[in-house]
Design brief:
With 321 residues, the protein is of the alpha+beta class.
Length: 321
């Protein structure tokens, strides 16, 4: 499950590729598309749609389904992105032999475990809509592992030049210095606004944060390690949909999220110096450039294949609750 989800994270950052000829009808009632004449079942696509739907919900909550995406509905965007993700994974995994990539027995076992976990995460209604067999599930999980290994093989020899990286560093270091300012925070999480406001008022009146943290324990991922975590500003900005600019010692007002309300105390704020920042940015730059190398190769693979989508099946795809 974690492997398939990580593919969606990667592909969510890529723009959609135009699929030439993707609307040609083909026979077979349960075939949603063919790639170079090879049939892709609707149930296989539905698994990708299931993951894409979960990601959309995680990003925007229920409100995202009312959003207009440049004239496209959220449902149409999710359906297209699920299709593109499936296409990328299948085309890339098919290149495994070219790059002498294969899965070990241990990796195949891991794929089966991920597949079982994915099935266990579904409700009975979701299983009925997706209607995928165990074996097909395991094959998809193996393909996602191959996808990642092929990316590694395609990009393993790439190293950015020092001149290119230096230019990138000088141009972006100040904005990245802010983004990679590290915060150590303590946080209290509650599910309702009234309780959050009560806690906030008690803190303003001088009550001890740690005492209140113990009074309002939470088993959420955000509150693990007794409510203390270390993270970068850019991740806090993204997580809380705000410009996170509190200073050391400050306590936030209740912050509303889809899950509930957070009250955050800044225990430490560390701004990276040039040497620290350069190390962080080198990893970031190299990762981004390797992704570009792979994307360029993937685009060429896509241009060399024939994709046909069966519109009668496509138009009857049911969204997964």
């Amino acid at each position: 499950m974690k492997n398939l989800k990580s593919i969606f994270v990667i592909l969510f950052c890529l723009s959609l590729i135009a699929l030439a000829g993707c609307s040609k009808p083909i026979p077979k009632g349960d075939t949603i598309a063919t790639i170079n004449g090879k049939a892709i079942s609707k149930s296989e696509y539905m698994l990708y749609l299931y993951e894409a739907t979960k990601d959309f919900n995680a990003i925007g909550g229920d409100d995202i389904w009312e959003t207009d995406f440049d004239g496209q509905s959220a449902e149409d965007v999710v359906k297209e992105r699920a299709f593109v993700t499936m296409l990328h994974v299948k085309v890339t995994s098919d290149k495994a032999s070219k790059y002498q990539v294969s899965l070990s027995d241990e990796e195949k076992t891991s794929a089966k475990i991920d597949g079982d976990a994915e099935l266990a995460s579904m409700t009975e209604e979701q299983k009925n809509i997706i209607s995928i067999s165990d074996q097909d599930m395991y094959k998809i999980m193996e393909d996602t592992l191959l996808y990642k290994k092929v990316i590694e093989a395609v990009t393993k020899d790439y190293q950015p030049s020092e001149a290119e990286f230096h230019a990138y560093f000088e141009q972006n270091k100040e904005s990245q210095r802010a983004a990679y300012t590290e915060y150590t925070i303590s946080n209290i999480f509650v599910s309702d606004q009234q309780t959050a406001q009560q806690i906030s008022q008690r803190l303003k009146e001088g009550e001890d944060f740690q005492t209140l943290l113990q009074e309002y324990p939470s088993d959420t991922q955000q509150n693990q390690n007794s409510g203390v975590m270390e993270t970068y500003k850019n991740r806090l900005d993204s997580a809380f949909d705000m410009d996170f600019n509190l200073e050391q010692g400050q306590i936030s007002e209740p912050i509303s999220t889809a899950e509930g309300y957070f009250i955050i105390r800044i225990d430490k704020k560390s701004i990276p110096d040039d040497a620290q920042l350069k190390e962080i940015m080198r990893v970031e730059y190299t990762t981004a450039m390797k992704q570009k190398v792979f994307t360029d190769e993937l685009n060429q693979w896509i241009s060399d294949i024939e994709i046909e989508r069966h519109e009668a099946v496509w138009n009857n795809v049911e969204m997964i609750p």
